[in-house]
Amino acid sequence: xxxxxxxxxxxxxxxxxxxxxxxxxxxxxxxxxxxxxxxxxxxxxxxxxxxxxxxxxxxxxxxxxxxxxxxxxxxxxxxxxxxxxxxxxxxxxxxxxxxxxxxxxxxxxxxxxxxxxxxxxxxxxxxxxxxxxxxxxxxxxxxxxxxxxxxxxxxxxxxxxxxxxxxxxxxxxxxxxxxxxxxxxxxxxxxxxxxxxxxxxxxxxxxxxxxxxxxxxxxxxxxxxxxxxxxxxxxxxxxxxxxxxxxxxxxxxxxxxxxxxxxxxxxxxxxxxxxxxxxxxxxxxxxxxxxxxxxxxxxxxxxxxxxxxxxxxxxxxxxxxxxxxxxxxxxxxxxxxxxxxxxxxxxxxxxxxxxxxxxxxxxxxxxxxxxxxxxxxxxxxxxxxxxxxxxxxxxxxxxxxxxxxxxxxxxxxxxxxxxxxxxxxxxxxxxxxxxxxxxxxx
Length: 442
Ligand SMILES: [Zn+2]
Hints:
There is one protein chain. With about 450 residues, this protein is an alpha/beta fold. The chain has two domains: about 100 residues, Urease, subunit C, domain 1, CATH 2.30.40; about 300 residues, TIM Barrel (Alpha-Beta Barrel), CATH 3.20.20. The two termini are about 15 Å apart. Strand 11, helix 8 and strand 12 form a beta-alpha-beta unit. The structure holds zinc ion. Zinc ion (ZN) binds next to loops.
């Protein structure tokens, strides 16, 4: 079945221009057939009202919680949340129960994800059970479909073991995504220094992050591996990555929306909605992360979407689990608070949320053109909305951005040519899509 989408404006990622254009997609091949203003009719048609068509967003750092923690999220609810956020591809972290440390569990995730609304790419563990003691079988995990390796949630404490891991990953061409945290420095910390002192809670020092990043950058240089640094939060880490890139180390780095938009100064009491690892840092660190993101030292945005139940997050900061959800708010937040004030262009934001993450993890995506996969999202840049977690498709409601005003919410997402999300208030869109419903079940 061929679907024609009219009434949108297509963002040209090379020059940032927005031109009215229709898109003709084919759900059988999952590809874009044609772009332009005078396209043949499809079997179905869908009309937008000036929304902007972007390539489907790509998030390389998401926690889908399955297997094991399905009260927090499932592969399906996490993928629905991704589609609502404009994402068409997500990489899921392996700190599940059991952890994704065997080819069988990687295949299990892929089988469950086959019917999910977006493409799910498993990341497999670096070490067995993420215990940091013995490496997993990287070649077998890659053959099963793992796109990267990570012990996310924990750092690999043993430098010798990490060197072995990077050497093997380099041979296979697999990125190693590090959660940089030296546990001997982190201790029982829960918040950054200033907020910890204010609230009388143990602090989680930034040196725990930066020291491990320094170690792993040196090991990546030595082994030639592709090191991917997760959720950079410290000024010192940004400087280390800048230094390593100047030396030619193969490193990419991500920054989370909460580290770009919030500092520890926002924490207004013992409310675990603020608890995230790495923690919200000082205003100086936030500014450094933003500058590093704008100058390209930090390559891409990843949400570190980490859903938890309301009961878990109702606990004190001391005992509640770390994490914030992010999939359904990241694009509008960064559009509203970075693009609209003129800090970066819309095209650059889209490159950092689609093209770059796809490249970094070796995925196909990040562009809309004939012949490419029909992964796209339409965002409404005209209407402001208040962020209301009760509307999330994720099971998690743990966002620090409740009540923030934003524009740029997705109204329509297509993954491989099929409609996987449409905003409820887009009644015109919904009516048009009714006729294609047979083709949307996925
Ligand atoms: Zn992490």
